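new request in #modeling-help
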Amino acid sequence: MKKNEKTAELQETADDRNGSLLRIENLEVEFHTVEGIHKAVRKVSYEVKMGETLGVVGESGSGKSVTALSVMQLIQSPPGKIMGGKILFEEKDLLSLSKEEMNHIRGNEIAMIFQEPMTSLNPIHTCGKQIMEPLILHKGYSKSEAYEKALQMMGQVGIPIPRQRMKEYPHQLSGGMRQRVMIAMALVCKPKLLIADEPTTALDVTIQAQILELMKILRKEMNSSIIMITHDLGVVAEMCDRVVVMYDGQIVEVCKVSDLFRHPYHPYSEGLICSIPSIGGTRRKLYAIKGTVPSPYEEKTGCSFAPRCQYAKDICRRQCPEMTDLGNGRLVRCWNYRETGNLMETAKESPEGRGKA
Amino acid sequence: MKNKKSFLKNNTVFQALRTNTLLTIGVVICAIWLFVIIFADYLAPYDPLLQDLSLRLQPPCREHLFGTDSLGRDILSRVLAGSRISIGAGLQCVIISAVAGMLIGGISGYIGGIFDDVVMRIGELFSSFPTIILAMVIASAMGPSLFNTLLTMCIVWWPNYARVMRAMVIQVKSNEYVEASRCLGASRMRIFIREILPNSISSVIVLTTVDFGNAILLFASLSYLGLGSPPPAPEWGAMVSNGAEQFYYWWVATFPGLAILSVSLGANFIGDGIRDYLDPKLRKTIS
Protein backbone atom coordinates (compact mmCIF):
# COMPACT_ATOMS: atom_id res chain seq x y z
CA MET A 1 0.00 0.00 0.00
CA LYS A 2 2.62 2.41 1.16
CA LYS A 3 4.76 1.57 -1.82
CA ASN A 4 1.96 2.44 -4.22
CA GLU A 5 1.56 5.86 -2.71
CA LYS A 6 5.25 6.48 -2.96
CA THR A 7 5.42 5.48 -6.62
CA ALA A 8 2.43 7.62 -7.44
CA GLU A 9 4.21 10.54 -5.87
CA LEU A 10 7.32 9.90 -7.90
CA GLN A 11 5.23 9.70 -11.04
CA GLU A 12 3.84 13.13 -10.33
CA THR A 13 7.22 14.70 -9.82
CA ALA A 14 8.38 13.15 -13.07
CA ASP A 15 5.46 14.72 -14.88
CA ASP A 16 6.07 18.09 -13.27
CA ARG A 17 9.63 18.43 -14.35
CA ASN A 18 9.56 18.48 -18.07
CA GLY A 19 13.17 19.48 -18.48
CA SER A 20 15.01 17.56 -21.13
CA LEU A 21 17.71 15.17 -20.04
CA LEU A 22 19.09 14.23 -23.42
CA ARG A 23 18.67 16.12 -26.63
CA ILE A 24 19.97 14.81 -29.92
CA GLU A 25 20.19 17.44 -32.63
CA ASN A 26 20.70 16.70 -36.31
CA LEU A 27 22.85 13.68 -35.64
CA GLU A 28 24.49 12.19 -38.70
CA VAL A 29 26.39 8.92 -38.62
CA GLU A 30 28.06 7.29 -41.60
CA PHE A 31 29.83 4.01 -42.12
CA HIS A 32 32.61 4.11 -44.67
CA THR A 33 32.79 0.59 -45.97
CA VAL A 34 34.26 -1.10 -49.03
CA GLU A 35 30.87 -1.06 -50.77
CA GLY A 36 30.43 2.64 -50.25
CA ILE A 37 29.21 5.16 -47.74
CA HIS A 38 26.34 3.94 -45.61
CA LYS A 39 24.42 6.85 -44.12
CA ALA A 40 23.04 4.99 -41.12
CA VAL A 41 21.63 8.00 -39.32
CA ARG A 42 20.48 11.05 -41.26
CA LYS A 43 19.74 14.24 -39.35
CA VAL A 44 18.07 12.61 -36.40
CA SER A 45 16.82 14.83 -33.60
CA TYR A 46 14.93 13.73 -30.55
CA GLU A 47 14.68 14.52 -26.92
CA VAL A 48 14.32 12.48 -23.77
CA LYS A 49 12.67 14.23 -20.87
CA MET A 50 13.43 13.64 -17.21
CA GLY A 51 11.78 10.49 -15.96
CA GLU A 52 10.17 9.56 -19.24
CA THR A 53 10.42 6.38 -21.24
CA LEU A 54 10.96 6.98 -24.90
CA GLY A 55 10.40 4.14 -27.34
CA VAL A 56 12.43 3.99 -30.53
CA VAL A 57 10.95 1.62 -33.07
CA GLY A 58 11.86 0.65 -36.59
CA GLU A 59 13.03 -2.25 -38.70
CA SER A 60 16.50 -3.73 -38.49
CA GLY A 61 18.89 -1.31 -40.12
CA SER A 62 16.74 1.74 -39.53
CA GLY A 63 19.46 3.34 -37.43
CA LYS A 64 17.83 3.07 -34.03
CA SER A 65 20.69 1.19 -32.40
CA VAL A 66 23.33 3.29 -34.14
CA THR A 67 21.76 6.44 -32.70
CA ALA A 68 21.86 4.94 -29.22
CA LEU A 69 25.44 3.76 -29.63
CA SER A 70 26.38 7.27 -30.75
CA VAL A 71 25.04 8.59 -27.47
CA MET A 72 27.40 6.22 -25.67
CA GLN A 73 30.06 6.94 -28.29
CA LEU A 74 30.56 3.28 -28.86
CA ILE A 75 30.43 3.41 -32.65
CA GLN A 76 33.31 1.37 -34.04
CA SER A 77 35.57 3.85 -35.74
CA PRO A 78 36.59 3.06 -38.44
CA PRO A 79 34.28 2.32 -40.27
CA GLY A 80 31.72 4.37 -38.33
CA LYS A 81 31.97 8.12 -38.01
CA ILE A 82 29.76 10.76 -36.48
CA MET A 83 29.59 13.38 -39.21
CA GLY A 84 27.65 16.11 -37.50
CA GLY A 85 25.09 17.11 -34.97
CA LYS A 86 25.01 17.46 -31.23
CA ILE A 87 24.21 15.12 -28.39
CA LEU A 88 23.35 17.24 -25.39
CA PHE A 89 23.18 15.41 -22.09
CA GLU A 90 22.18 17.83 -19.35
CA GLU A 91 23.27 20.63 -21.70
CA LYS A 92 26.78 19.14 -22.11
CA ASP A 93 27.69 18.15 -25.67
CA LEU A 94 28.88 14.56 -25.33
CA LEU A 95 30.63 14.71 -28.68
CA SER A 96 33.03 17.36 -27.41
CA LEU A 97 34.05 15.51 -24.24
CA SER A 98 37.45 13.90 -23.79
CA LYS A 99 37.82 10.13 -23.50
CA GLU A 100 38.21 10.29 -19.72
CA GLU A 101 35.19 12.50 -19.27
CA MET A 102 33.18 10.18 -21.49
CA ASN A 103 34.36 7.13 -19.52
CA HIS A 104 33.07 8.82 -16.41
CA ILE A 105 29.63 9.31 -17.94
CA ARG A 106 29.36 5.80 -19.38
CA GLY A 107 27.99 3.40 -16.83
CA ASN A 108 27.68 6.17 -14.27
CA GLU A 109 25.19 8.62 -15.72
CA ILE A 110 24.18 6.80 -18.89
CA ALA A 111 23.98 3.02 -18.81
CA MET A 112 23.04 0.47 -21.40
CA ILE A 113 21.38 -2.94 -21.42
CA PHE A 114 22.09 -5.23 -24.33
CA GLN A 115 19.99 -7.62 -26.28
CA GLU A 116 21.91 -10.80 -25.61
CA PRO A 117 22.20 -11.62 -21.93
CA MET A 118 23.94 -14.87 -22.91
CA THR A 119 27.00 -13.16 -24.34
CA SER A 120 26.99 -9.79 -22.61
CA LEU A 121 28.40 -11.09 -19.35
CA ASN A 122 32.03 -12.01 -19.02
CA PRO A 123 32.19 -15.79 -18.52
CA ILE A 124 35.20 -15.74 -16.21
CA HIS A 125 34.07 -13.28 -13.59
CA THR A 126 31.41 -14.02 -11.00
CA CYS A 127 28.12 -12.16 -11.31
CA GLY A 128 28.82 -10.34 -8.09
CA LYS A 129 32.17 -9.08 -9.32
CA GLN A 130 30.56 -7.79 -12.49
CA ILE A 131 27.89 -5.86 -10.62
CA MET A 132 30.54 -4.43 -8.30
CA GLU A 133 32.70 -3.27 -11.21
CA PRO A 134 30.90 0.02 -12.04
CA LEU A 135 30.74 0.96 -8.35
CA ILE A 136 34.48 0.53 -7.97
CA LEU A 137 35.09 2.34 -11.25
CA HIS A 138 32.87 5.34 -10.77
CA LYS A 139 31.93 5.74 -7.16
CA GLY A 140 35.28 4.86 -5.64
CA TYR A 141 33.70 2.26 -3.36
CA SER A 142 35.89 -0.16 -1.49
CA LYS A 143 35.40 -3.83 -2.23
CA SER A 144 33.30 -4.54 0.85
CA GLU A 145 31.10 -1.47 0.30
CA ALA A 146 30.62 -2.45 -3.32
CA TYR A 147 29.80 -6.00 -2.26
CA GLU A 148 27.05 -4.85 0.07
CA LYS A 149 25.65 -2.49 -2.56
CA ALA A 150 25.73 -5.16 -5.26
CA LEU A 151 24.01 -7.61 -2.95
CA GLN A 152 21.25 -5.11 -2.32
CA MET A 153 20.97 -4.41 -6.05
CA MET A 154 20.62 -8.11 -6.78
CA GLY A 155 17.73 -8.28 -4.38
CA GLN A 156 16.19 -5.24 -6.02
CA VAL A 157 16.21 -6.82 -9.48
CA GLY A 158 14.48 -9.86 -8.04
CA ILE A 159 17.26 -12.42 -8.00
CA PRO A 160 16.49 -15.02 -5.34
CA ILE A 161 19.20 -16.01 -2.82
CA PRO A 162 21.47 -13.11 -3.87
CA ARG A 163 24.27 -14.10 -1.49
CA GLN A 164 24.62 -17.40 -3.31
CA ARG A 165 24.25 -15.85 -6.79
CA MET A 166 27.00 -13.33 -6.10
CA LYS A 167 29.48 -16.19 -6.17
CA GLU A 168 28.10 -17.86 -9.27
CA TYR A 169 29.31 -17.52 -12.83
CA PRO A 170 27.08 -16.37 -15.70
CA HIS A 171 26.84 -19.86 -17.23
CA GLN A 172 25.21 -21.10 -14.05
CA LEU A 173 22.26 -18.76 -14.48
CA SER A 174 19.25 -18.88 -16.78
CA GLY A 175 18.67 -16.28 -19.49
CA GLY A 176 16.18 -14.32 -17.45
CA MET A 177 18.49 -14.27 -14.43
CA ARG A 178 21.38 -13.12 -16.59
CA GLN A 179 19.30 -10.28 -17.98
CA ARG A 180 18.51 -9.33 -14.40
CA VAL A 181 22.22 -9.31 -13.65
CA MET A 182 22.75 -7.09 -16.71
CA ILE A 183 20.06 -4.73 -15.45
CA ALA A 184 21.64 -4.72 -12.00
CA MET A 185 25.01 -3.86 -13.55
CA ALA A 186 23.47 -1.03 -15.55
CA LEU A 187 21.48 0.42 -12.67
CA VAL A 188 23.82 -0.03 -9.75
CA CYS A 189 25.26 3.48 -10.15
CA LYS A 190 21.74 4.93 -10.44
CA PRO A 191 22.21 6.36 -13.94
CA LYS A 192 20.04 9.24 -15.07
CA LEU A 193 19.50 7.65 -18.45
CA LEU A 194 19.19 3.99 -19.29
CA ILE A 195 19.42 2.84 -22.88
CA ALA A 196 17.83 -0.55 -23.36
CA ASP A 197 18.68 -2.04 -26.74
CA GLU A 198 16.01 -4.68 -27.35
CA PRO A 199 16.26 -5.91 -23.76
CA THR A 200 13.64 -8.61 -24.13
CA THR A 201 14.18 -9.89 -27.66
CA ALA A 202 16.27 -12.88 -26.63
CA LEU A 203 13.99 -13.96 -23.80
CA ASP A 204 10.92 -16.12 -23.85
CA VAL A 205 7.53 -14.51 -23.39
CA THR A 206 6.91 -15.07 -19.69
CA ILE A 207 10.39 -13.83 -18.82
CA GLN A 208 9.86 -10.86 -21.14
CA ALA A 209 6.84 -9.83 -19.12
CA GLN A 210 8.77 -10.19 -15.86
CA ILE A 211 11.71 -8.14 -17.12
CA LEU A 212 9.45 -5.38 -18.42
CA GLU A 213 7.60 -5.30 -15.12
CA LEU A 214 10.93 -5.09 -13.31
CA MET A 215 12.11 -2.22 -15.50
CA LYS A 216 8.90 -0.33 -14.81
CA ILE A 217 9.32 -0.73 -11.07
CA LEU A 218 12.97 0.26 -11.15
CA ARG A 219 12.23 3.29 -13.28
CA LYS A 220 9.81 4.49 -10.67
CA GLU A 221 12.18 3.75 -7.82
CA MET A 222 15.20 5.38 -9.39
CA ASN A 223 13.35 8.00 -11.39
CA SER A 224 15.64 7.61 -14.36
CA SER A 225 14.74 8.08 -18.01
CA ILE A 226 14.76 5.16 -20.39
CA ILE A 227 15.33 4.93 -24.11
CA MET A 228 13.68 1.69 -25.14
CA ILE A 229 14.93 0.47 -28.49
CA THR A 230 12.73 -2.26 -29.82
CA HIS A 231 10.84 -3.56 -32.80
CA ASP A 232 8.14 -4.97 -30.61
CA LEU A 233 5.18 -2.57 -30.52
CA GLY A 234 3.75 -4.56 -27.63
CA VAL A 235 6.75 -3.50 -25.54
CA VAL A 236 6.21 0.11 -26.63
CA ALA A 237 2.56 0.03 -25.62
CA GLU A 238 3.45 -1.53 -22.29
CA MET A 239 6.36 0.67 -21.31
CA CYS A 240 6.69 3.95 -23.13
CA ASP A 241 5.33 7.46 -22.80
CA ARG A 242 6.36 8.72 -26.21
CA VAL A 243 7.61 6.97 -29.28
CA VAL A 244 9.99 7.77 -32.15
CA VAL A 245 9.48 5.82 -35.36
CA MET A 246 12.57 5.49 -37.52
CA TYR A 247 12.86 4.39 -41.09
CA ASP A 248 16.05 4.21 -43.16
CA GLY A 249 18.09 6.42 -40.85
CA GLN A 250 15.45 9.10 -40.47
CA ILE A 251 12.76 9.83 -37.98
CA VAL A 252 9.40 9.58 -39.68
CA GLU A 253 7.10 10.18 -36.75
CA VAL A 254 7.28 11.33 -33.14
CA CYS A 255 4.23 11.17 -30.91
CA LYS A 256 2.69 9.94 -27.69
CA VAL A 257 2.22 6.20 -27.57
CA SER A 258 -1.54 6.45 -27.30
CA ASP A 259 -1.64 8.70 -30.38
CA LEU A 260 0.45 6.27 -32.36
CA PHE A 261 -1.98 3.45 -31.70
CA ARG A 262 -5.05 5.62 -32.17
CA HIS A 263 -4.05 7.38 -35.33
CA PRO A 264 -0.60 7.01 -36.84
CA TYR A 265 0.03 9.75 -39.41
CA HIS A 266 2.97 8.33 -41.27
CA PRO A 267 2.14 5.49 -43.67
CA TYR A 268 5.06 3.48 -42.29
CA SER A 269 3.83 3.73 -38.69
CA GLU A 270 0.40 2.85 -39.95
CA GLY A 271 1.82 -0.22 -41.63
CA LEU A 272 3.56 -1.23 -38.41
CA ILE A 273 0.40 -0.87 -36.35
CA CYS A 274 -1.63 -2.82 -38.86
CA SER A 275 0.82 -5.69 -38.94
CA ILE A 276 0.31 -6.50 -35.25
CA PRO A 277 -1.76 -9.66 -34.97
CA SER A 278 -4.91 -9.11 -32.93
CA ILE A 279 -6.32 -11.48 -30.40
CA GLY A 280 -9.98 -12.32 -31.00
CA GLY A 281 -12.09 -10.54 -33.58
CA THR A 282 -12.58 -11.73 -37.12
CA ARG A 283 -9.72 -13.51 -38.68
CA ARG A 284 -8.04 -11.57 -41.41
CA LYS A 285 -4.85 -11.89 -43.31
CA LEU A 286 -2.09 -10.14 -41.41
CA TYR A 287 -0.99 -6.94 -43.06
CA ALA A 288 2.58 -6.75 -44.29
CA ILE A 289 4.36 -3.69 -45.63
CA LYS A 290 5.26 -4.40 -49.22
CA GLY A 291 8.84 -4.49 -50.38
CA THR A 292 12.00 -4.31 -48.31
CA VAL A 293 14.19 -1.68 -46.72
CA PRO A 294 16.05 0.24 -49.45
CA SER A 295 19.75 -0.37 -49.95
CA PRO A 296 21.72 1.89 -47.64
CA TYR A 297 24.28 2.68 -50.31
CA GLU A 298 21.89 4.20 -52.84
CA GLU A 299 21.67 7.94 -53.21
CA LYS A 300 17.99 8.68 -52.69
CA THR A 301 15.84 11.42 -54.10
CA GLY A 302 12.51 11.93 -52.48
CA CYS A 303 11.02 10.11 -49.55
CA SER A 304 12.83 6.84 -48.89
CA PHE A 305 9.56 5.13 -47.99
CA ALA A 306 7.87 6.15 -51.26
CA PRO A 307 8.59 2.88 -53.15
CA ARG A 308 6.70 0.92 -50.50
CA CYS A 309 4.02 3.46 -49.75
CA GLN A 310 0.45 3.03 -50.97
CA TYR A 311 -0.21 6.76 -50.72
CA ALA A 312 2.88 7.78 -52.73
CA LYS A 313 2.42 10.60 -55.23
CA ASP A 314 4.78 12.29 -57.64
CA ILE A 315 6.07 14.75 -55.10
CA CYS A 316 7.05 11.90 -52.77
CA ARG A 317 9.46 10.54 -55.37
CA ARG A 318 10.88 13.97 -56.21
CA GLN A 319 11.43 15.62 -52.88
CA CYS A 320 12.08 14.39 -49.37
CA PRO A 321 9.44 15.79 -47.00
CA GLU A 322 10.49 17.88 -44.01
CA MET A 323 9.26 17.25 -40.48
CA THR A 324 5.81 18.75 -40.03
CA ASP A 325 4.87 19.88 -36.54
CA LEU A 326 1.25 18.97 -35.89
CA GLY A 327 1.24 20.49 -32.43
CA ASN A 328 0.93 18.75 -29.08
CA GLY A 329 4.34 17.14 -29.54
CA ARG A 330 3.45 15.34 -32.75
CA LEU A 331 5.86 15.43 -35.64
CA VAL A 332 5.56 13.60 -38.94
CA ARG A 333 7.68 13.44 -42.05
CA CYS A 334 5.17 12.88 -44.86
CA TRP A 335 3.56 14.84 -47.68
CA ASN A 336 0.26 13.01 -47.36
CA TYR A 337 -0.26 12.76 -43.62
CA ARG A 338 -3.78 14.14 -43.98
CA GLU A 339 -4.82 11.22 -46.14
CA THR A 340 -3.41 8.33 -44.11
CA GLY A 341 -5.68 6.08 -42.14
CA ASN A 342 -7.20 3.84 -44.81
CA LEU A 343 -5.44 0.80 -43.51
CA MET A 344 -6.57 1.54 -40.01
CA GLU A 345 -10.17 1.80 -41.19
CA THR A 346 -10.11 -1.59 -42.86
CA ALA A 347 -8.46 -3.10 -39.84
CA LYS A 348 -11.01 -1.57 -37.48
CA GLU A 349 -13.75 -3.64 -39.06
CA SER A 350 -12.68 -6.39 -36.74
CA PRO A 351 -14.46 -5.43 -33.52
CA GLU A 352 -11.75 -5.99 -30.91
CA GLY A 353 -9.04 -4.00 -32.66
CA ARG A 354 -5.55 -4.64 -31.47
CA GLY A 355 -5.12 -6.08 -28.04
CA LYS A 356 -3.17 -3.83 -25.75
CA ALA A 357 -3.47 -0.59 -27.70
CA MET B 1 39.27 -14.03 10.51
CA LYS B 2 38.66 -17.34 8.81
CA ASN B 3 39.94 -20.48 10.39
CA LYS B 4 42.11 -22.85 8.45
CA LYS B 5 39.43 -25.37 7.63
CA SER B 6 37.11 -22.91 5.90
CA PHE B 7 40.07 -21.44 4.08
CA LEU B 8 40.84 -24.86 2.60
CA LYS B 9 37.21 -25.33 1.67
CA ASN B 10 36.81 -21.93 0.06
CA ASN B 11 40.17 -21.76 -1.64
CA THR B 12 39.60 -22.53 -5.30
CA VAL B 13 43.21 -23.58 -5.92
CA PHE B 14 42.89 -26.22 -3.25
CA GLN B 15 39.57 -27.33 -4.72
CA ALA B 16 41.11 -27.61 -8.16
CA LEU B 17 43.84 -29.81 -6.74
CA ARG B 18 41.35 -32.05 -5.01
CA THR B 19 39.04 -32.52 -7.97
CA ASN B 20 41.56 -32.68 -10.80
CA THR B 21 43.72 -35.79 -10.46
CA LEU B 22 45.94 -35.02 -13.44
CA LEU B 23 46.73 -31.59 -12.07
CA THR B 24 47.71 -33.18 -8.78
CA ILE B 25 49.96 -35.67 -10.54
CA GLY B 26 51.56 -32.84 -12.51
CA VAL B 27 52.13 -30.81 -9.37
CA VAL B 28 53.68 -33.82 -7.63
CA ILE B 29 56.02 -34.54 -10.56
CA CYS B 30 57.12 -30.93 -10.77
CA ALA B 31 57.52 -30.72 -7.00
CA ILE B 32 59.82 -33.75 -7.10
CA TRP B 33 61.92 -32.19 -9.83
CA LEU B 34 62.05 -28.93 -7.93
CA PHE B 35 63.32 -30.85 -4.94
CA VAL B 36 65.93 -32.53 -7.15
CA ILE B 37 67.06 -29.22 -8.60
CA ILE B 38 67.60 -27.78 -5.14
CA PHE B 39 69.28 -30.79 -3.56
CA ALA B 40 70.99 -32.37 -6.60
CA ASP B 41 74.41 -32.10 -4.97
CA TYR B 42 73.31 -34.12 -1.95
CA LEU B 43 71.22 -36.65 -3.84
CA ALA B 44 73.75 -37.63 -6.46
CA PRO B 45 75.69 -40.73 -5.38
CA TYR B 46 78.78 -39.86 -7.46
CA ASP B 47 80.38 -36.79 -8.97
CA PRO B 48 78.55 -36.36 -12.30
CA LEU B 49 81.80 -35.41 -14.04
CA LEU B 50 83.92 -38.25 -12.60
CA GLN B 51 85.18 -40.52 -15.39
CA ASP B 52 86.17 -44.12 -14.82
CA LEU B 53 86.92 -45.89 -18.07
CA SER B 54 87.18 -49.25 -16.35
CA LEU B 55 83.48 -48.99 -15.58
CA ARG B 56 82.32 -47.76 -18.97
CA LEU B 57 78.87 -48.77 -20.27
CA GLN B 58 77.88 -50.71 -17.18
CA PRO B 59 74.22 -51.78 -17.28
CA PRO B 60 72.04 -50.69 -14.35
CA CYS B 61 73.17 -52.44 -11.19
CA ARG B 62 73.24 -51.83 -7.46
CA GLU B 63 76.22 -49.45 -7.52
CA HIS B 64 75.01 -47.58 -10.58
CA LEU B 65 71.19 -47.65 -10.59
CA PHE B 66 70.92 -46.11 -14.07
CA GLY B 67 74.16 -47.64 -15.36
CA THR B 68 77.18 -45.75 -16.71
CA ASP B 69 77.90 -44.06 -20.00
CA SER B 70 80.73 -44.47 -22.51
CA LEU B 71 83.15 -42.59 -20.26
CA GLY B 72 82.13 -44.50 -17.16
CA ARG B 73 80.20 -41.63 -15.57
CA ASP B 74 77.26 -42.51 -13.34
CA ILE B 75 74.08 -41.74 -15.29
CA LEU B 76 71.87 -41.31 -12.22
CA SER B 77 74.17 -38.59 -10.91
CA ARG B 78 74.27 -36.95 -14.31
CA VAL B 79 70.50 -37.01 -14.69
CA LEU B 80 70.07 -35.46 -11.24
CA ALA B 81 72.71 -32.81 -11.81
CA GLY B 82 71.48 -32.16 -15.35
CA SER B 83 68.07 -31.18 -14.09
CA ARG B 84 69.40 -27.76 -13.17
CA ILE B 85 70.73 -27.00 -16.60
CA SER B 86 67.99 -28.56 -18.70
CA ILE B 87 64.91 -27.59 -16.71
CA GLY B 88 66.39 -24.18 -16.04
CA ALA B 89 67.12 -23.52 -19.70
CA GLY B 90 63.77 -24.88 -20.85
CA LEU B 91 61.83 -22.89 -18.28
CA GLN B 92 63.63 -19.65 -18.94
CA CYS B 93 63.21 -19.96 -22.68
CA VAL B 94 59.52 -20.85 -22.51
CA ILE B 95 58.55 -18.35 -19.84
CA ILE B 96 60.40 -15.40 -21.34
CA SER B 97 59.09 -16.08 -24.83
CA ALA B 98 55.56 -16.76 -23.59
CA VAL B 99 55.39 -13.54 -21.59
CA ALA B 100 56.92 -11.50 -24.40
CA GLY B 101 54.77 -13.17 -27.04
CA MET B 102 51.64 -12.77 -24.98
CA LEU B 103 52.18 -9.07 -24.41
CA ILE B 104 53.28 -8.30 -27.95
CA GLY B 105 50.61 -10.46 -29.60
CA GLY B 106 47.93 -9.34 -27.18
CA ILE B 107 48.58 -5.64 -27.61
CA SER B 108 49.00 -6.04 -31.33
CA GLY B 109 45.68 -7.83 -31.66
CA TYR B 110 43.94 -5.40 -29.35
CA ILE B 111 45.14 -2.26 -31.12
CA GLY B 112 44.88 -3.75 -34.60
CA GLY B 113 45.39 -1.77 -37.78
CA ILE B 114 48.82 -0.98 -39.19
CA PHE B 115 50.56 -1.53 -35.86
CA ASP B 116 49.24 -5.07 -35.85
CA ASP B 117 50.45 -5.70 -39.40
CA VAL B 118 53.94 -4.40 -38.70
CA VAL B 119 54.36 -6.34 -35.47
CA MET B 120 53.17 -9.61 -36.95
CA ARG B 121 55.43 -9.27 -40.01
CA ILE B 122 58.39 -8.68 -37.68
CA GLY B 123 57.40 -11.79 -35.78
CA GLU B 124 57.27 -13.82 -38.98
CA LEU B 125 60.69 -12.48 -39.90
CA PHE B 126 62.12 -13.83 -36.67
CA SER B 127 60.41 -17.18 -36.80
CA SER B 128 61.46 -17.74 -40.42
CA PHE B 129 65.11 -17.92 -39.33
CA PRO B 130 66.41 -21.43 -38.72
CA THR B 131 67.11 -21.46 -34.99
CA ILE B 132 70.49 -23.12 -35.22
CA ILE B 133 71.84 -20.73 -37.85
CA LEU B 134 70.60 -17.73 -35.91
CA ALA B 135 72.17 -19.13 -32.75
CA MET B 136 75.48 -19.53 -34.57
CA VAL B 137 75.28 -15.98 -35.92
CA ILE B 138 74.58 -14.56 -32.48
CA ALA B 139 77.25 -16.75 -30.93
CA SER B 140 79.86 -15.57 -33.43
CA ALA B 141 78.82 -11.97 -32.99
CA MET B 142 78.54 -11.90 -29.21
CA GLY B 143 80.57 -14.93 -28.22
CA PRO B 144 79.15 -18.33 -27.29
CA SER B 145 77.53 -18.39 -23.88
CA LEU B 146 74.53 -19.84 -22.13
CA PHE B 147 72.90 -16.43 -22.04
CA ASN B 148 73.25 -15.87 -25.76
CA THR B 149 71.83 -19.29 -26.54
CA LEU B 150 68.79 -18.61 -24.39
CA LEU B 151 68.41 -15.23 -26.04
CA THR B 152 68.41 -16.87 -29.45
CA MET B 153 65.83 -19.40 -28.40
CA CYS B 154 63.54 -16.68 -27.12
CA ILE B 155 63.97 -14.59 -30.25
CA VAL B 156 62.91 -17.50 -32.41
CA TRP B 157 60.24 -18.72 -30.05
CA TRP B 158 58.11 -15.71 -29.08
CA PRO B 159 56.30 -15.29 -32.43
CA ASN B 160 54.51 -18.63 -31.86
CA TYR B 161 52.94 -17.30 -28.70
CA ALA B 162 52.32 -13.89 -30.20
CA ARG B 163 50.36 -15.45 -33.05
CA VAL B 164 48.18 -17.61 -30.82
CA MET B 165 47.59 -14.75 -28.39
CA ARG B 166 46.74 -12.32 -31.17
CA ALA B 167 44.19 -14.69 -32.67
CA MET B 168 42.58 -15.22 -29.28
CA VAL B 169 42.48 -11.51 -28.48
CA ILE B 170 40.89 -10.67 -31.82
CA GLN B 171 38.25 -13.28 -31.18
CA VAL B 172 37.62 -12.22 -27.59
CA LYS B 173 37.51 -8.49 -28.23
CA SER B 174 34.54 -8.83 -30.56
CA ASN B 175 32.51 -10.38 -27.74
CA GLU B 176 29.56 -8.45 -26.44
CA TYR B 177 30.79 -8.43 -22.88
CA VAL B 178 33.76 -6.35 -23.98
CA GLU B 179 31.38 -3.78 -25.41
CA ALA B 180 29.27 -4.05 -22.28
CA SER B 181 32.35 -3.28 -20.27
CA ARG B 182 33.06 -0.23 -22.42
CA CYS B 183 29.48 0.77 -21.72
CA LEU B 184 30.22 0.69 -18.03
CA GLY B 185 32.94 3.24 -18.60
CA ALA B 186 36.01 1.01 -18.25
CA SER B 187 39.15 2.41 -19.87
CA ARG B 188 40.93 0.59 -22.70
CA MET B 189 43.69 -0.53 -20.36
CA ARG B 190 41.25 -1.91 -17.82
CA ILE B 191 39.29 -3.74 -20.47
CA PHE B 192 42.49 -5.30 -21.79
CA ILE B 193 43.61 -6.48 -18.38
CA ARG B 194 40.28 -7.49 -16.87
CA GLU B 195 38.21 -8.70 -19.79
CA ILE B 196 40.48 -9.66 -22.64
CA LEU B 197 43.65 -11.09 -21.08
CA PRO B 198 42.00 -13.61 -18.76
CA ASN B 199 39.72 -14.81 -21.53
CA SER B 200 42.49 -15.38 -24.05
CA ILE B 201 45.36 -16.54 -21.88
CA SER B 202 44.42 -20.20 -21.54
CA SER B 203 45.56 -21.43 -24.96
CA VAL B 204 48.92 -19.72 -24.54
CA ILE B 205 49.36 -21.45 -21.20
CA VAL B 206 48.63 -24.82 -22.75
CA LEU B 207 50.99 -24.09 -25.64
CA THR B 208 53.68 -23.09 -23.15
CA THR B 209 53.51 -26.36 -21.29
CA VAL B 210 53.48 -28.39 -24.49
CA ASP B 211 56.46 -26.41 -25.74
CA PHE B 212 58.42 -26.92 -22.58
CA GLY B 213 59.66 -30.34 -23.71
CA ASN B 214 60.50 -28.97 -27.13
CA ALA B 215 62.52 -26.19 -25.57
CA ILE B 216 64.59 -28.70 -23.62
CA LEU B 217 65.28 -30.61 -26.83
CA LEU B 218 66.13 -27.47 -28.81
CA PHE B 219 68.52 -26.47 -26.09
CA ALA B 220 70.01 -29.93 -26.29
CA SER B 221 70.63 -29.66 -30.01
CA LEU B 222 72.24 -26.27 -29.53
CA SER B 223 74.44 -27.67 -26.76
CA TYR B 224 75.38 -30.47 -29.10
CA LEU B 225 76.82 -27.83 -31.44
CA GLY B 226 78.75 -26.33 -28.56
CA LEU B 227 76.44 -23.34 -28.30
CA GLY B 228 74.75 -24.23 -25.05
CA SER B 229 76.37 -25.75 -22.04
CA PRO B 230 79.80 -27.11 -22.97
CA PRO B 231 80.16 -30.94 -23.36
CA PRO B 232 81.29 -32.29 -20.03
CA ALA B 233 78.37 -30.61 -18.28
CA PRO B 234 75.51 -33.02 -17.64
CA GLU B 235 72.73 -31.87 -19.94
CA TRP B 236 69.80 -34.16 -20.73
CA GLY B 237 69.54 -33.46 -24.43
CA ALA B 238 73.23 -34.01 -24.96
CA MET B 239 73.05 -37.22 -22.94
CA VAL B 240 70.21 -38.54 -25.10
CA SER B 241 72.04 -37.78 -28.32
CA ASN B 242 75.14 -39.39 -26.83
CA GLY B 243 73.17 -42.49 -26.02
CA ALA B 244 71.69 -42.64 -29.50
CA GLU B 245 75.19 -43.47 -30.78
CA GLN B 246 75.42 -46.45 -28.44
CA PHE B 247 72.28 -48.15 -29.54
CA TYR B 248 72.86 -51.48 -27.82
CA TYR B 249 73.44 -49.86 -24.46
CA TRP B 250 69.83 -48.81 -24.00
CA TRP B 251 70.21 -47.28 -20.56
CA VAL B 252 72.48 -44.49 -21.75
CA ALA B 253 69.72 -42.71 -23.68
CA THR B 254 66.68 -44.07 -21.86
CA PHE B 255 67.12 -42.50 -18.43
CA PRO B 256 67.78 -38.92 -19.50
CA GLY B 257 64.97 -39.40 -22.01
CA LEU B 258 62.62 -40.50 -19.26
CA ALA B 259 63.65 -37.45 -17.29
CA ILE B 260 62.69 -35.17 -20.18
CA LEU B 261 59.46 -37.11 -20.64
CA SER B 262 58.45 -36.87 -17.00
CA VAL B 263 59.17 -33.16 -16.80
CA SER B 264 57.22 -32.28 -19.91
CA LEU B 265 54.39 -34.61 -18.88
CA GLY B 266 54.21 -32.90 -15.50
CA ALA B 267 54.24 -29.51 -17.16
CA ASN B 268 51.47 -30.60 -19.54
CA PHE B 269 49.27 -31.81 -16.71
CA ILE B 270 49.77 -28.55 -14.87
CA GLY B 271 49.02 -26.59 -18.05
CA ASP B 272 45.75 -28.45 -18.60
CA GLY B 273 44.89 -28.00 -14.96
CA ILE B 274 45.52 -24.27 -15.11
CA ARG B 275 43.38 -23.97 -18.22
CA ASP B 276 40.52 -25.79 -16.52
CA TYR B 277 41.00 -23.64 -13.47
CA LEU B 278 40.83 -20.44 -15.48
CA ASP B 279 37.61 -21.47 -17.19
CA PRO B 280 34.78 -21.44 -14.67
CA LYS B 281 32.71 -23.75 -16.85
CA LEU B 282 35.31 -26.51 -16.47
CA ARG B 283 36.05 -25.74 -12.86
CA LYS B 284 34.58 -28.36 -10.59
CA THR B 285 33.49 -27.44 -7.13
CA ILE B 286 33.08 -29.47 -4.01
CA SER B 287 29.56 -29.00 -2.81
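bot summary: Chain B has a mean pLDDT of 83.
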